[in-house]
Design goal:
Blueprint lengths: L3 H10 L6 H18 L10 H13 L11 E5 L7 H7 L4 E6 L2 H13 L5 E5 L2 H4 L9 E7 L4 H8 L3 E11 L4 H13 L2 E10 L5 E9 L11 H6 L3
Parallel strand pairs: 1-2, 1-4, 2-3, 4-5
Antiparallel strand pairs: 5-7, 6-7
Helix pairs in contact: 7-8
Pfam families: GidB
Function: Specifically methylates the N7 position of a guanine in 16S rRNA.
GO molecular function: rRNA (guanine-N7-)-methyltransferase activity
C-alpha cells in the first residue's frame, strides 16, 4: 500500500529512523485503515500519498519533540489513531492510551493494535472531560496530545488534566495558530500549563503545520475539566 522507501526517506528527513519492521507496520496500518474505511467513516484521505504525508508523516512530526524519557502518552480524541498509533510504531516502548468518544472507532483501534502486534496499548471509549476527572487517568501521563480536535482553549481543558506535573501537552494545529494562542493563553495558565514552544512544520506538498508545546508547571484545579456543554459554550 505505501511506498516503503519513500516513507523511510520522509521520516529520515524529520530525524526519525524507521526499520523494516516499522515500515511493515505502517504498511499494515494503511491497508487496515482503507479496508475499515469502507465500512465506517474514519478518514477522507485514502490515497497512498495522502496517507503517507497527511497521516503518517504529519504524525511523525511529533516524535522528535517528545521529551527525553517519555514513557506514557494519551492521544485524546484519537479518531483513526493519529498521531498516537504512529508514535507507537516509531517508539515501540511507549505506553499508549487511545481515547475516543465513539465505540466503533475504539473497536477499530483495538483490532488495529492486535494486527500490528502491539503491547502496551489501552483503547478507551469515553469523553475527554470524563476521563480527565478519572483518578486512574488524571495527571498520569508524561504527554497528552490531540490532532484537529478543537480550538486550543477548549483543547487545553480536555488535555491538560491528563498530564503529570512536568509533563507536556502537544496540540497539532494547522498553518495559523497565533490567534488561537492568544485566546488560549489565560486558559492554559489557569489549567496549570505554560506554552514553551510553537514548532512550525512543512509537509512535502508545501502545506504548513504548527505543533504547540505546553509544559505542565502546576496541578490542574480540581474543578476542571468542566462538563462538555460548559467547555464549548464558555471556553476559559
Amino acid at each position: 500500500m505505501i511506498d516503503r522507501e519513500r516513507m523511510r526517506e520522509l521520516a529520515a528527513a524529520q530525524g526519525v529512523a524507521l526499520s523494516d519492521l516499522q515500515l511493515e507496520q505502517l504498511d499494515r496500518y494503511a491497508v487496515t485503515l482503507v479496508e475499515a474505511n469502507q465500512k465506517m467513516n474514519l478518514t477522507a484521505i485514502v490515497d497512498r500519498q495522502g496517507i503517507e504525508e497527511k497521516h503518517f508523516l504529519d504524525s511523525l512530526l511529533l516524535v522528535p519533540l517528545l521529551p527525553v524519557g517519555c514513557k506514557s502518552l494519551i492521544d485524546v480524541g484519537t479518531g483513526a489513531g493519529f498521531p498516537g498509533v504512529v508514535a507507537k510504531v516509531a517508539l515501540p516502548g511507549l505506553r499508549l492510551t487511545l481515547l475516543d468518544s465513539l465505540q466503533k472507532r475504539v473497536t477499530f483501534l483495538e483490532e488495529l493494535s492486535a494486527h500490528l502486534g502491539f503491547g502496551g496499548v489501552t483503547c478507551l471509549h469515553g469523553r475527554a472531560e470524563e476521563g480527565g476527572r478519572d483518578p486512574a487517568l488524571r495527571e498520569q501521563f508524561d504527554v497528552a496530545t490531540a490532532r484537529a480536535v478543537a480550538d486550543l482553549a477548549v483543547l487545553a481543558e480536555y488535555c491538560l488534566p491528563f498530564v503529570r506535573l512536568g509533563g507536556r501537552f502537544f496540540a497539532l494545529k494547522g498553518p495559523a495558530c497565533e490567534e488561537e494562542l492568544e485566546r488560549a493563553a489565560s486558559a492554559i495558565a489557569l489549567l496549570g500549563g505554560k506554552v514553551v514552544g510553537v514548532h512550525p512544520q512543512t509537509l512535502p506538498d508545501g502545506s504548513s503545520r504548527n505543533i504547540v508545546e505546553v509544559k505542565k508547571i502546576s496541578q490542574t484545579p480540581t474543578k476542571y475539566p468542566r462538563n462538555a456543554g460548559k467547555i464549548k459554550k464558555n471556553p476559559l
